Amino acid sequence: MNQPHIAGIAPFFIVSNVTTAISFYLEKLGFDTVFQEPDHDPFFAIVQRDGAMIFLKSVSGDPLPNYKQAPDARWDAYVSVPDPDTLAAEFISRGVSFTVPLQNTPDGLRGFELADADGYILFFGHPG
To answer: 96-121: per-residue pLDDT in tens?
Structure first.
């Protein structure tokens, strides 16, 4: 029996300001906005680049990235990329700062970490 295909998974980030979050993902990381509601001063949006999608929503209360709850589990999203070296160079050219530079990690990954506008930590990389 063939199992149904799962196409992906997307993190859902509570953000302080959806417009600011959208700007970060578009200008710094090269994502596109695929949905926002409403068009002016949105409270919800979906951004996407290739197969990576992130949901952004503004609600009462502050964003709570993982590192604020568990410093040893700081990633809020793992973004699988085939060539982290080239992507890191692109992000640097866009003025992105990394919280952890491009490297081979002790747990067998190659990649880098960055924080978005609300402090969520994204790791871009792959095994190897």
So the answer is: 999 999 999 999 999 999 999 999 99
CA 121 to chain CA centroid, Å, is: 7
CATH match for 12-58+70-127 among 3.40.50.2300, 3.10.180.10, 3.20.20.70, 3.90.1140.10: 3.10.180.10
Half-sphere CA count of 124, side-chain side, radius 13 A: 25
- Whether omega before 101 lies within 30 degrees of 0, making that bond cis, reads no
Burial of 29 (C-beta count, 10 Å sphere; 0-12/13-18/19+): buried
pLDDT at 123: 98
Q: What are the Cα distances from residue 58, in Å, to 37, 72, 99? A: 11, 26, 24
Residue 33: what pLDDT? 98
Which of 54, 76, 77 shows the shortest CA–CA distance to 66?
76
